[in-house]
Every structure is written in C-alpha cells, then in structure tokens.
Amino acid sequence: MGTGLGAMPQALLMRLEHGTTLGHAEKAALAASVNAYERVPPRTVLVEESARPRTGYAVVEGFACHYRQGRDGKRQITALLLPGDLYDPQTSILHGADHGVATLTGCLVAVIGATALERLKLEHPRLARAFTWRLLTEASTAREWIVGLGTRPAGKRFAHLLCELQARLQAVGLASETCYRLPLTWEDLADTLGISLVHMNRVAQEMRDTGLITFRDKMLTIEDAARLRVFADFSPAYLHLTPP
C-alpha cells in the first residue's frame, strides 16, 4: 500500500473499482490529487457539524464515522468509514456540513482538497461515475440502517452490522469469511445501533453465549457465518459490491 505523495492507497482503488473500471489515467489523477497523508489520533474531529469544509479525506487505515450530536450530548453514528472510504464535502453543491466526521480509532488519512475532488469529477468521467456509485451505495446503506432501526431488535441489528462490516472489509482485502479486526468500543457500537451501553453489553454477551461470535483482543471471529447471516436476515445486495 502506497502512503507517499504520488501513491494511492490500494483500498480506495479497490473500493472505487466496484463502481467502474479505472484506467491508468484515472488512477494517476487520483494519486496526484492527494495533498498529504496524515496520522490522526482516535476521537479526533475532522469536520465539525455545520462547518464549511474545504478538504476531503480518504481513510487508509483505521475506522472513522459520520455522526450527529444531540443537545444533550448524545451521539448517533450515522455511517462508519472504513479503509477505502472517502469523505467528500461536495462544496460545489452543499454550503455546509449537516453532520460531523471524526476518527474512532487512530487513522491514516489521505487529504484531498475539495476543489481537487470537483476537478476530478469534471475531467475524468470514470471517476465521476465511481464517485456517484459511492454516493449511491452510501445512501443504500443508510436506508438499510433505517430499516434495521425500525424493524430489527437490537440483537439482529448487531448481527446485521457484523455481517455488513465483514462484507465491506472483505471487499478491500481486510477480512476473511470468518475473521476480521474490529477495533471499535462497545460505546461506538451502541451509538451506531441506537441503544444504550448497558443494552449493548447485554446483546454482545447473548451473541457470544449462542456461539455465533468470539471477540478477543479486538479480533472478531464468526463461528458460523451461515447461521449468523440467517439470524441477521442479511443479504449484501444493498452494498452493491459486485464489480461492473
């Protein structure tokens, strides 16, 4: 994985190429648009809610998130950003951020100016298609999360999230069928699932007790992948991970 100027993280290319095939010119242009690579500590806000960001971020390593914060300080995580995911501020269309962006773990991010992102879309139709595919899959994933919040009990919601993370990480070469690194805290997961920390601990213990998962040293092992997917009622179709 390249992490110097002029190199593009493989995870981002793998992610975008689920939307369209990129040629050498598109890959070179994307690599040239990276201003810097930065190591960012965990729990660092990259974009404040209501800010007018001028910078985009591609996650190279680690987990980040989109979130909204209530007046009472309670956080709702509205999307998880994994290696290969991109935050694009869409400054030519939107006039301010309607959510915050923050790291959950220590992250390595590629910094790309908003103007450079807009230029990539105008000058490279394949990249424009890949970025559009990314936006559409983010919207599809958000709809699936809404369905989960409205129709699935917390245990099934947690199982569904674990299946989703496995599929998304596997798509960029960071998970097997049965194992992947899950560096999130129970609080992060509770804020993602919309439940209390106490409820989150109870749900996780029930999942372990039924033999569906083992969680040790930030590594998640899925003991029976087929049974977990059936329990979660999981189908990966909404992720649109089949290459064109």
Structure description:
By secondary structure, this protein is an alpha+beta fold. The protein is built from eight helices and eleven strands. The chain has helices spanning 10-16, 24-32, 114-123, 125-151, 154-171, 186-193, 197-209, 225-232; strands at residues 34-40, 45-47, 55-61, 64-69, 75-81, 86-87, 100-103, 107-113, 179-181, 213-216, 219-222. The strands form three sheets. It has a four-stranded antiparallel sheet with strand order 1-8-3-6. Helix 3 crosses helix 4 (125-151). The chain is globular and about 55 Å long. The two termini are 24 Å apart. Mean pLDDT is 92; it is low at 1-6.
Using brief descriptors, characterize the structure shown:
244 residues; alpha+beta; four-stranded antiparallel beta sheet; disordered N terminus
The computed structural class is alpha+beta
Number of strands: 11
Largest sheet, in brief, is: 4 strands, antiparallel
| Cα gyration radius (Å) | 18 Å
Number of helices: 8
Termini separation comes to 24 Å
> Spans of 5+ residues with little confidence (pLDDT < 50)?
1-6
| Strand fraction | 15-25%
Helix content: 40-55%
Mean pLDDT: 92
Biggest sheet strand order reads: 1-8-3-6
